[in-house]
Amino acid sequence: MFIRPLSQIFVLGIFFLASSCKECKKVELNVIERTTTLGGILEMRPTGQQIASLCPTIIDLVKPIPDGAEAIRALARAKYLNVEDTCLEWRDAWEYHCQPTYPFGTCQPVRYSYCSKWQHSETPLPGYDEAIALSQDIDELYRITQSMCIDALADHFDDAYGRSIAVQDLYKGKISAEQLKFHAAACPSHY
Question: Is residue 108 part of a domain?
Fold first, then answer.
């Protein structure tokens, strides 16, 4: 098994904290705030014609949602996926260490070891599958919202209204509570 020096572990820890804070902010801004606003708009049950007039605002509102869904997947990989790299085969080799001395340098062969064959394994931890399912639901919400506006702007008002109900049901039934639960678990420093 490969053991990282303490300095690398510290640097990796700082990188994880910095990248996870960035991803947490994306989830907050690109998913939670935007889906909540979208849910509020559609909760008023606008007609197909009203949806058509709201679509420029709605399209602009949902534009960052796919980036937020990807941030959820990144957080899920970082927090809920146990990754292990194990060296299966160590090999010895030679390298030269040279000392600069005047007028000529001297070099000595020194033996070192390196890993020539690695085994990589990933084990999902509790919470991973739920996070991935949430990101898929958010992707689906984005898709249905775009389809709703395509229908509304093509004067297919009944279809647009039906899709608005589907968006609202998906938001209320799954996404609203699950996104907050995920964010609280993956980003505890934000609470």
Answer: no
Contact 93/136 with Cβ under 8 angstroms?
Answer: no
> Which residue numbers in the chain have pLDDT < 70?
1-19, 102-103, 105, 190-191
φ/ψ (deg, to 5) at 63: -50, -45
pLDDT digits (tens, 9 = 90+) for 66-112: 999 999 999 999 999 988 889 999 999 988 777 777 667 677 888 98
Adjacent-strand bridge partners of 2: none
- Domain range for 158: 6-84+124-190
Residue 78 lies in a domain: yes
Q: Give, rounded to a whole angstrom, the gap between the first and last alpha carbons of the chain.
A: 37
Give the H/E segment covering residue 86. Answer: strand 81-99
Residue 179 lies in a domain: yes
3-state secondary structure string, 124-166? ECCCHHHHHHHHHHHHHHHHHHHHHHHHHHCCCHHHHHHHHHH
Let me know if residue 11 belongs to a domain. Answer: yes
Six token digits for residue 55 = 């679509």
- Structural domains of the chain, count: 1
Give whole-number Cα distances, 181 to 48, 127, 174, in Å: 32, 10, 11
The β-bridge relationship of strands 81-99 and 106-124 is antiparallel
